[in-house]
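TA notes. Do not distribute before section.
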Amino acid sequence: MLDVLTVDLQIACNETAQLPSQEDIECWVETVLVNESVNDAELSIRVVNTAESAELNGTYRQKHYATNVLSFPADLPEELDLPLLGDLAICADIVASEANAQGKPLQAHWAHMVIHGVLHLLGYDHINDDEATLMESLEVQLLKQLGFNDPYVWTIADECTTRDQQQ
């Protein structure tokens, strides 16, 4: 069980009507942390527009485009015993656009992006195939606990559309 969770939610975009609630975000974060046996945690989640996402992605990853979620793990000296995990920047426009393009409920895609970002803050990555498989399986498991479908499974309609496009 989580003793203390502090999520500093910063809304820096105009898409507030489509955003999940603070309570939903905290629930998704808590699901990850409980699964990973983290007792105390503090993190910031900044919901940004495409311009800020592209700026952050360019500055910190040298990729000059907006992206769905960026994670910035805390890099504290070991002698500081603070529960600070780090920061996430999630682009509301990209999340909405991806959900629409992939035929997913917006809330489910938001949950996936928050979970994905928190796993990055905890040290998970998807640079190689083994890491990607582990991270994706954790995401699927956690989303299922929350009542969401596997974000990596295509529906028959998606498969037919893809097959038609390839012919």
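Switch to the second chain here.
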Amino acid sequence: MFKYFTVQTANEVLPLVIQKYDNIKKQKMEVIKAEQELQVTLSDNDTFEKYVVLKQKLNEELSKFYKTIEELEETGVVMKGLDQGLLDFPSKRFDEEVWLCWKEGETEIKFWHEKDSGFNGRKPISVDAESLI
């Protein structure tokens, strides 16, 4: 679903978004665990049966991982970097499309950046001085 967020609507949905983001991180750990189990099986010269079962488990965990990303992005938020903990909320500043951005550990949306500037171009939100919808 696409929508533009205001600072207020982004902050209202932020607790749910953080929960979904945390679910993605947990699911990533399940994928890593399944990959490690599969690698051990390869190095131990186990049977094809064990290998196939673990490979199917890895496929299931990968599917769940991508499903959790999809669930997050269905809120209208875009995940920019899982390992960096970066999420962006589409917004507008005057007539220009911009991103409201969140970094893991932040408790509210306090920054924005232009479409092409990314995290390094983050600027503090000043609702008085900036017209963010």
